[in-house]
Amino acid sequence: MTTQSELYERFKALHERQGGFVMPNPWDGVSALLCKEAGYEALGTSSAAISFALGRPDGVHAVSREAHLENAKLIGRITDLPVNGDTEDGFGPAPSDAVTTVEAAIEAGLAGVAIEDTTGDPDVPTHPFDAAVERVRQAAQAAKGRIVLTGRTDSFLFGMNDLDAVIKRLVAFAEAGADVLYAPFPKDMDAVRAIVKAVAPKPVNLNIGPASGVVTVAELQAAGVRRISFGAAPYRHAMGALKEALEAGRRGDLAPVAGGISFGVITKMLTTAPRT
Prior knowledge:
By secondary structure, the chain is an alpha/beta fold. The protein has a single domain, classed as Phosphoenolpyruvate-binding domains (TIM Barrel), CATH 3.20.20.60. It has 12 helices and 8 strands. It has an 8-stranded parallel sheet with strand order 1-8-7-6-5-4-3-2, with helices on both faces. The radius of gyration is 19 Å and the shape is globular.
């Protein structure tokens, strides 16, 4: 198996490559192997997919640090690919919580880790500016040269659509030492380009596309986006297909229920996957 430091170097190099790369987000062993079989070079976890699979809501500290990192370890072990941890706010409000998460992610063999400015409190959904920056700063000190750190603001997700304020946070995260910057679902491609320009030369991650609608990988790369993640979209896609098949079965049509990947294909993927 590849060492954590080797996976970190591979992951870092993908961000430096011309055009960047696309990073899907599996949630279990088989979905991770399907991503590898499709030719992806790195994978990310999805806090939403993990939470939903466990029957819990996302973003309210319903899944522990330990549970999330065990999921990430499984994905890394079974694929031997670099894995980026979608580790929410670092599993606690204090900068020391973010540092603990960085250290734990390295110990778990991850190549990347994210620290968000979310609080888990719907009344005050993001940390104040100075507190958010300090959390990233201390996380970056722990991560430097050991794991790729993404500084993320979820302002857009909570309806705080002041682009200048979002850029101010991302620039501060970059100056505090974050390796990658991320603000899910900017309004449109103009906002994406503005974010890329503001934090350059550091790379930007984007979840599929802007809020205005899905665009192509080529369009995002032309705008300067270096890492394109899928977030919870693969999980939602799988659940959508399951919902349709179950509804068809309830109507008496069993063909959709019987479709999909064969038992033999899944068994072969699992029996040939790394086990150490």
